Inverse folding.
């Protein structure tokens, strides 16, 4: 196993990403999008694709940079620090990983299009208020040579603007993953106004027809393709949330040094020092789980489940603590919309629910550890 | 540089063979080092082997350098890389083998000597530690110097050819069983407190040194009070060896270095990535069936945290090996590791219920071990001191 420290390449990638994102996508960018009622900035995504980020998990033969999951995590973490809003996770991590599991021409073309930033995906799995792919009930009924899909998917992140949808549905003897255009007849997308100002749609399927060509992988065998994709997404989301926690924490420590009350910087008070130090310890411990998940996905992807769930569980908890402490230590200003901390708090809550909450992932850890 | 996977695999095979032939069956009992009734050999002039097997196991490991696997061969080690050491420890764990030897000489003084000692001191002091011949104890805390360790007052006067030492140390682990003590003494009373301390090596057999065990809430007495009354410490011992490590009055540098080792060691107490049984499995057995929902939820969190902390210890070792500064990470590791360990024992006591309340009952040393863990976040610097270090040295907060 490669070391749990960043390679020189990864450090360079992080530095490059930070430079780019500080210029093009600071938190003020998210704020401007929210104020304009936008959830997607196509120009920004195009720039990111030109940097090679959209194809970070796409094979070189399909025009990608194929740098692996640890590198994708490095990017996601930097994006998290300033709450960058982009199709990176949905398209470049989740969809790209799913498509890589199959080796037909259509998947290859889709991967090429993802790498250029010209094709975006959204993942339609959830049917209720909690992530639970195994409980998928939405039917895709056999009809002649094809299938007919009926039902509703919720919390389809990026589903309002995505070109295509990865849809998990129940078939005769299992579950099947469909890859269908978002504008296919019978698909209705209702964009939801989410607390974190990003796009998450409710998608209705009303007699939507699909053929065998729309299936990724094999019929009734969705998880062979979807599990690696979900794990890649969970690990990258954990990295993003770890970045989010670092971003919020950086603001908080800065404020502790600068804000004066009772004639001294509030950071000189031991009550606050110890809470800040505890939070730093939490972020460091979480960073280790994130690094490990990236390495496992790159080197031993068949056995990465424990590492990924560990990372997502820790990141969820750490991000939550970082934003709660962030608001509290900022005092009144932390509660104002004018100040950025609220954006961090809202994204942390959304990230906590997406692709499995703390209980879901801690439960997987427990199961894999024999209890 | 990392070793090739092939070389490591070959090392593992060779080691596995060696262990198969050389580790006595009685030494494969899964004894937990550091538990209340630890059966690990601590060595020293007064050590009484509990069995022939314990003696054989020590001797065979000494011959291979396996009591201190990463120390240089010339000082009694095996010169293993960290990758090899991991293989070594995992192979020991695989057959439930005990460590052949543990001591404060191995964990604490050795690393400090390797860093600050002269070549003569290393050659003189390290091999007897590696062979388990000399047992050391640590003379740091005093009644008036706990968290504020740098205010130690044990007096060390320069009397020409010797030092004259007077004072009292407390919480000296196993002082009553030790042959030698490494102690922090006040050699300059006028200097600022951090700049008047010397790191002194004293033979426990010297006239004027006495120890008194302190009975703890766990019922055992691993700690002592150690008194120094007009103790004469020759500046050079009979072999001409200096008993001062580092520079006179700059013992704090040595002490700090050593504390980082101690903290890192203590931090590893409760965490373990994947190789041993999960806390949840232990609790399920202890509870004699399904865990109730509250206990299960707490066990899940403790398991998540234990795995992540184990990875953090790994990551920091990787960072140190890659030449990246790890700064004051030992304070962080000590804090998270010890707080977790206390939580784990609270959960184990909870799962055992009233059965776990009996001294020497079905749960053996469990109550004593549980009580012992309460010291984890005090010894080697309290959790609050660790948070203070992180706050000032890592975060740069004022004061």
């Amino acid at each position: 196993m490669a070391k749990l420290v960043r390679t020189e390449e990864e450090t360079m990638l992080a530095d490059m990403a930070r430079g780019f994102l500080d210029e093009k996508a600071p938190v003020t960018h998210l704020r401007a999008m929210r104020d304009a009622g936008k959830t997607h900035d196509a120009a920004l995504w195009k720039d990111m694709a030109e940097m090679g980020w959209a194809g970070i998990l796409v094979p070189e033969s399909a025009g990608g940079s194929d740098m692996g999951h640890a590198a994708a995590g490095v990017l996601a973490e930097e994006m998290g620090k300033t709450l960058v809003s982009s199709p990176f996770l949905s398209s470049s991590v989740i969809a790209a990983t799913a498509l890589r599991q199959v080796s037909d021409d259509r998947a290859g073309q889709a991967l090429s299009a993802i790498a250029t930033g010209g094709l975006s995906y959204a993942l339609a799995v959830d049917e209720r208020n909690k992530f639970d792919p195994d409980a998928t009930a939405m039917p895709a009924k056999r009809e002649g040579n094809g299938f007919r899909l009926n039902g509703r998917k919720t919390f389809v992140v990026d589903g309002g603007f995505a070109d295509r949808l990865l849809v998990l549905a129940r078939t005769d003897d299992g579950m099947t993953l469909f890859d269908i255009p978002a504008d296919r007849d019978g698909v209705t997308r209702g964009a939801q106004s989410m607390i974190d100002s990003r796009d998450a749609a409710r998608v209705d399927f009303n007699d939507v027809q699909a053929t065998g060509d729309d299936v990724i992988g094999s019929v009734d065998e969705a998880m062979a393709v979807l599990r690696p994709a979900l794990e890649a997404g969970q690990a990258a989301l954990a990295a993003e949330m770890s970045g989010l926690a670092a971003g919020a924490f950086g603001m908080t420590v800065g404020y502790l040094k600068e804000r004066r009350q009772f004639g001294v910087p509030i950071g000189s008070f031991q009550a606050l020092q110890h809470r800040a130090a505890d939070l730093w310890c939490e972020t460091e411990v979480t960073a280790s789980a994130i690094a490990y998940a990236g390495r496992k996905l790159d080197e031993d992807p068949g056995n990465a489940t424990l590492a990924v769930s560990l990372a997502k569980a820790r990141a969820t908890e750490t991000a939550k603590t970082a934003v709660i402490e962030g608001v509290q230590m900022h005092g009144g200003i932390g509660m104002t919309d004018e100040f950025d901390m609220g954006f961090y708090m809202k994204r942390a809550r959304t990230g906590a629910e997406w692709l499995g909450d703390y209980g879901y992932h801690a439960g997987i850890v427990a199961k894999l550890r024999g209890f | 540089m990392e070793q090739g996977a092939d070389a490591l695999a070959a090392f593992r095979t060779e080691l596995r063979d060696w262990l198969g032939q050389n580790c006595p069956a009685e030494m494969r009992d899964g004894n937990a080092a550091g538990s209340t009734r630890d059966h690990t050999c601590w060595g020293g002039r007064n050590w009484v082997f509990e069995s022939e097997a314990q003696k054989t196991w020590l001797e065979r490991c000494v011959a291979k350098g396996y009591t201190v696997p990463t120390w240089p061969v010339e000082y009694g080690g095996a010169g293993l890389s960290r990758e090899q050491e991991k293989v070594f420890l995992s192979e020991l764990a695989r057959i439930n083998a005990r460590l052949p030897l543990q001591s404060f000489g191995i964990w604490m003084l050795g690393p400090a000597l390797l860093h600050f000692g002269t070549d003569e001191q290393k050659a003189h002091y390290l091999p007897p530690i590696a062979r388990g011949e000399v047992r050391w104890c640590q003379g740091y805390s005093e009644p008036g110097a706990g968290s504020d360790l740098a205010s130690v007052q044990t007096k060390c006067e320069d009397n020409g050819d010797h030092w004259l030492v007077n004072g009292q140390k407390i919480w000296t682990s196993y002082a009553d069983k030790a042959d030698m003590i490494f102690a922090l003494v006040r050699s300059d009373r006028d200097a600022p407190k951090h700049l008047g301390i010397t790191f002194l090596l004293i033979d426990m057999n010297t006239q004027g040194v006495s120890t008194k065990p302190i009975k703890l809430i766990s019922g055992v007495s691993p700690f002592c009070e150690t008194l120094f009354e007009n103790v004469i410490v020759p500046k050079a011992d009979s072999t001409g060896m200096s008993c001062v490590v580092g520079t006179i009055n700059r013992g704090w540098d040595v002490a700090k270095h050593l504390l980082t080792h101690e903290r890192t060691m203590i931090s590893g107490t409760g965490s373990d990535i994947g190789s041993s049984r999960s806390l949840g499995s232990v609790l399920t057995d202890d509870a004699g069936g399904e865990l109730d929902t509250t206990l299960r939820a707490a066990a899940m969190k403790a398991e998540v945290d234990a795995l992540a902390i184990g990875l953090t210890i790994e990551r920091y070792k990787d960072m140190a090996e890659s030449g990246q500064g790890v700064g004051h990470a030992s304070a962080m590791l000590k804090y998270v590791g010890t707080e977790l360990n206390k939580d784990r024992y609270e959960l184990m006591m909870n799962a055992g219920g009233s059965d776990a309340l009996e001294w020497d009952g079905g749960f053996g040393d469990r109550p004593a071990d549980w009580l012992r863990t309460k010291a984890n976040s005090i010894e080697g610097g309290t959790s609050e001191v660790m948070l203070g270090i992180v706050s000032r040295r890592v975060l740069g907060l004022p004061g």
